[in-house]
Structure prediction request, 65 residues.
Amino acid sequence: MPKLKTNRGAAKRFRKTASGGYKRKQSHMRHILTKKSPKRKRQLRLPARIADADVAAVKRLLPYS
Prediction:
């Protein structure tokens, strides 16, 4: 059986959690920050979990995580 390649773009975006899920960074924090409230920007700093419907796709992209 040949080795599987890890999708490098996915490897930079997703991390596996201890419970077997995946976490990701929130979007909307790159630019146009002046019109966003401090509360919104503060909440966007926190990691988000990958939806259950997308976990299978992420597992295929990261076979060794």
